[in-house]
Amino acid sequence: MRRSCSQRCARWQTVSRAQWAQTYLVQAGLLTRPKPGIVTLTDAGRTLLAEGPDRVDSAFLRRYPSFVEFVSRGQTTAGSRGGDPG
Questions:
Q1: Number of independent structural domains in the chain
Q2: What does DSSP assign to residue 38?
Q3: What percent of the chain is predicted at pLDDT more than 70?
Q4: Is residue 85 part of a domain?
């Protein structure tokens, strides 16, 4: 049975968001990707997990210099292509 477009789109959107979340956590130094398909917590990630924050979003991740650098690189790239840097 074929899924409707809305089901496929919702699944794709969920996977996409999860992948971006993983990328953001890696860039903040909270996760590592030692091999394809493998993700591990770093010591910083374990510390954060033990703190039990209510929410981890991009504003929260700005406390990590490596994440700020990652975001800045993206803004520079978008700006050089004529996009809105922020």
A1: 1
A2: E
A3: 84
A4: no
